[in-house]
Design a protein that fits this description.
heterodimer; A: about 350 residues; alpha+beta; 4-stranded antiparallel β-sheet; 16 strands; globular; B: about 130 residues; two-stranded parallel sheet; 3 helices; 4 strands; extended
């Protein structure tokens, strides 16, 4: 019998109504140390939890991309959903695809960042659609538990409550760092639609919505689509560092990386070039609805330096309503299971 | 006019008959296809469902048989037609959109069941 250590957050944890389902994060290295395989580890977690649970397995040596195209350390390699001690036979587990980073892929995407900072590291985003039994979205479902969009949204399909878990917030938990618990609000609702075109993306399996475009494409309605949803995100100072790192790899917002309000705010404060001519009318409309009028954009009169941007990130980067900063150890329990 | 084999009304009647055959005092409730008005139901599985209903209903302790029909694939993709209808009842314009719906899986319905016999074939096999 092996031992498996997991990071566990109980349903209801966090401010207000808290998490809508239980959440368990597993480090791939801990699965290997347990002597079991990933699927066996997931089954064991569901059995111990008993109720609805979203389960994500991480490779912290690999890299991934955020929805707006920042390349960051740590990746989800498997997602799962469990309920009543079970994991659905057909729709309970999905494995992400290791993406071979070729020179062709680097040319087509925002992966110059990988080349500059993480060459040789494995890259994971979403699953390979050709390996799915049925072409469902990147979602796992067992009973009430839903783990959606390659493990960045978890829901209770019966109570219909949800938590948004952008990848950077999850990685903070895996690194035992501070996190921000809050409500998404209109800015995040718009921002998460400002994606980049990717092969095997976390949300879209093929290159659908390029930098400068919006996946939402619904004007003023975009800011209402995912507002008022509880979310766990990265502190803005850490997000600022990630954006600065991408800008330092010559990533131009709206040309190479997405035009989310966060990326835009840092680029303007820093005096970076922004590809205004590459933005679509649909994306312009959505940004305008949350206070960013692209036609009146001006770079900061005096560019701020990186230290200043990181220090003042909370005032520079918009988004997250009623944020509460937590040390992740306050909401995460380290549990050791016998499997 | 002869209806196709296993039309929706015929399907419902067959399920009802399978219960009544055991006892006219036992009842049947079908859940999950309330919105379905026109459909051809799979014949081969209809026979097996009748057989399963009979097996459940013949138990003396059972008073009521519930038949719950859920999407086997818990994320279903639907066509959405947004239609503008004029005063004279004719449709002037329609926009066709798409929406995916995520449903809870069978565990939710089976939570309090003591014994489960899963006779479904693997997905992709009939």
């Amino acid at each position: 019998m092996g031992k498996l250590t997991i990071r566990f957050m109980k349903q209801g944890t966090g401010p207000k109504q808290g998490l809508p389902i239980n959440v368990a994060f597993i480090d791939k290295r801990d699965v290997e140390a347990s002597g079991k395989n990933v699927d066996e580890a997931i089954q064991a977690v569901s059995k111990v939890v008993g109720g609805p649970v979203g389960i994500n397995v991480f490779d912290m040596d690999a890299v991934t991309t955020t929805s707006d195209g920042l390349v960051v350390e740590g990746a989800i390699v498997t997602m799962a959903a469990g309920d009543l001690g079970k994991v659905h036979r057909e729709f309970g587990i999905l494995h992400m695809e290791e993406i071979q980073v070729t020179s062709e892929l680097i040319k087509e995407e925002h992966l110059t960042q990988w080349k500059k900072y993480y060459e040789g590291r494995k890259l994971y985003r979403g699953p390979n659609p050709n390996k799915k039994l049925i072409p469902v979205h990147n979602v796992c479902i067992t009973g009430k538990a839903v783990n959606n969009n390659s493990a960045t949204e978890m829901m209770n399909a019966v109570t219909m409550e949800e938590i948004l878990l952008p990848i950077l917030g999850q990685l903070q938990i895996m690194k035992d760092g501070p996190i921000v618990f809050g409500l998404t609000g209109e800015v995040i609702s718009v921002g998460i639609g400002m994606t980049v075109a990717e092969k095997y993306g976390r949300v879209f399996p093929s290159r659908q919505f390029r930098a400068g475009d919006t996946a939402h494409g619904c004007g003023e309605y975009a800011k209402t689509l995912k507002c008022d949803i509880p979310c766990i995100v990265v502190p803005k100072s850490v997000l600022a560092k990630c954006i600065i790192q991408a800008l330092d790899a010559d990533m131009v917002p709206w040309l190479h990386i997405g035009c989310s309000p966060a990326v835009l705010a840092v680029a303007i404060a820093r005096g970076n070039e922004v590809a205004i001519d590459n933005i679509t009318e649909k994306a312009k409309l959505e940004l305008k609805s949350v206070g960013f009028d692209v036609d009146k954009l001006k770079p900061a009169k005096v560019a701020m330096n990186d230290e200043e941007i990181i220090e003042r990130a909370d005032e520079i980067i918009p988004g997250v309503v009623e944020p509460v900063m937590y040390d992740s150890s306050k909401i995460v329990t380290r549990m050791t299971l016998s499997i | 006019m002869k209806l196709m084999h296993t039309s929706l009304p015929e399907f419902k009647l067959k399920l009802q008959s399978a219960v009544i055959k055991q006892s006219p005092n036992k009842s049947l409730e079908i859940k999950g296809i309330e919105n379905l008005k026109h459909a051809k139901m799979q014949s081969l599985r209809t026979g097996r469902i009748e057989f399963a209903i009979q097996e459940i209903a013949e138990d003396r302790d059972i008073e009521k048989v519930e038949v719950v029909i859920l999407p086997r694939v818990p994320e279903t993709m639907h066509t959405v037609i947004i239609k503008g209808v004029g005063k004279d009842g004719t449709s002037k314009k329609a926009i066709i959109e798409s929406i995916n719906i995520i449903h809870p899986t069978e565990e939710v319905v089976l939570a309090d069941v003591k014994e489960v016999d899963d006779r479904r074939p693997l997905i992709g096999r009939h």
